[in-house]
């Protein structure tokens, strides 16, 4: 009699589905951008960033501790890289993006967000000589056109009316930082995923702590009300713990250049949230944009190597 095969765990199955993991990451980050704009001026940005990573670290630490003890020699051997990953992917990127939303509109942020794959490709080329394949480049361009179709509501002449401010430059700086993080993730030490994210979130919180203290003494204090609590719950659990674990795993499975086009799903999900939650009327440009973005993501993510 053949031995009965053990049923696969749903979590084990999910852990090996890069396209689903990266799509969920984009969904959680779309909610994060919308929420960051909504609470701008109510929740101090640097304090929010610091509490965000402290919360993730404390949630993961009990589960990550055995792996951290085993992986500590590898983490210590790559300490400069680990600190750089913490700074670019968690401390600087996150704090500056929240800070930027105090000065810019969600439309501008989503437009800048659409350049994410190009920043990843730029850093991969500069640091490691990794070039985009023709399929990856074509996919990025197609999905970028889809993003612009959605955000500009089918009117590309509206680009001329967009005015950039210091918040836009700050948001672009945060995206440039995250592009560096994405490219460097290919050189991370070989450790358990929980070890990696627990170390980088803890280190990111430590790097942010002095700036959070400075923000507090400058008069920007956290108000513990329903909106603040809901914001913290969302950013800690969904936009941080789950999103970064899914993103890191997606990069590990298919590489940064193939994972980068999933950035373009952020404005897609953002516009869908506006339709579902804010009552915005679905229009033809939504459908056209969605089709272009999804086609571009499929083309880019399935072409070339995982590098």
Query: Total strand count, please?
Result: 0
Rg, alpha carbons: 19 Å
Largest sheet: none
Give the overall average pLDDT.
Answer: 86
> What fraction of the residues are assigned to beta strands by DSSP?
under 5%
> How many distinct helices?
13
Structural class: mainly alpha
User: Helix content range of the residues, please?
Assistant: over 70%
Q: Spans of 5+ residues with little confidence (pLDDT < 50)?
A: 1-5, 303-307
Overall geometry: globular
- The H-and-E topology, N to C, reads as HHHHHHHHHHHHH
The span between the termini is: 44 Å
What distinguishing features does this structure have?
mainly alpha; globular; disordered N terminus; single chain; 307 residues
Topology (SSEs and partners):
Blueprint: H1 10-14, H2 18-38, H3 45-77, H4 79-100, H5 106-113, H6 116-128, H7 134-151, H8 166-184, H9 193-217, H10 226-254, H11 256-259, H12 265-278, H13 284-302
Protein model, in words:
It is a single chain. This protein is an all-alpha fold. Mean pLDDT is 86; it is low at 1-5 and 303-307. It contains 13 helices and no strands. Helix content is 75%, strand content 0%. α4 (79-100) crosses α9 (193-217) and α7 (134-151) packs antiparallel against α13 (284-302).
Short description:
The chain has 307 residues and is mainly α. The chain has helices at 10-14, 18-38, 45-77, 79-100, 106-113, 116-128, 134-151, 166-184, 193-217, 226-254, 256-259, 265-278, 284-302.
């Amino acid at each position: 009699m053949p031995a009965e095969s053990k049923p696969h765990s749903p979590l084990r199955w999910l852990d090996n589905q890069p396209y689903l993991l990266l799509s969920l990451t984009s969904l959680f980050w779309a909610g994060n951008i919308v929420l960051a704009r909504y609470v701008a001026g109510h929740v101090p940005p640097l304090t929010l960033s610091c509490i965000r990573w402290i919360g993730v670290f404390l949630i993961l630490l009990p589960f990550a501790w055995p792996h951290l003890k085993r992986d500590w020699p590898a983490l210590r051997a790559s300490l400069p890289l680990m600190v750089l990953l913490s700074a670019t992917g968690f401390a600087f990127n996150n704090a500056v993006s929240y800070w930027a939303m105090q000065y810019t509109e969600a439309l501008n942020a989503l437009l800048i967000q659409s350049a994410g794959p190009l920043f990843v490709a730029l850093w991969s080329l500069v640091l490691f000589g990794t070039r985009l394949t023709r399929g990856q480049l074509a996919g990025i361009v197609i999905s970028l056109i889809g993003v612009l179709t959605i955000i500009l509501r089918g009117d590309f002449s509206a680009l001329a009316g967009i005015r950039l401010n210091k918040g836009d430059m700050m948001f672009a700086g945060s995206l440039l930082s995250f592009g560096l993080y994405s490219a460097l993730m290919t050189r991370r030490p070989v450790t358990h995923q929980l070890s990696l994210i627990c170390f980088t979130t803890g280190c990111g919180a430590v790097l942010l702590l002095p700036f959070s203290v400075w923000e507090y003494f400058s008069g920007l204090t956290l108000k513990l009300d329903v909106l603040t609590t809901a914001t913290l719950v969302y950013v800690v659990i969904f936009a941080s713990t789950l999103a970064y674990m899914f993103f890191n795993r997606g990069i590990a499975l298919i590489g940064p250049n193939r994972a980068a086009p999933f950035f373009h799903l952020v404005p897609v999900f953002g516009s869908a949230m506006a339709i579902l939650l804010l009552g915005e009327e679905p229009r033809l440009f939504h459908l056209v944009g969605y089709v272009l973005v999804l086609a571009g993501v499929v083309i880019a993510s399935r072409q070339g190597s995982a590098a």
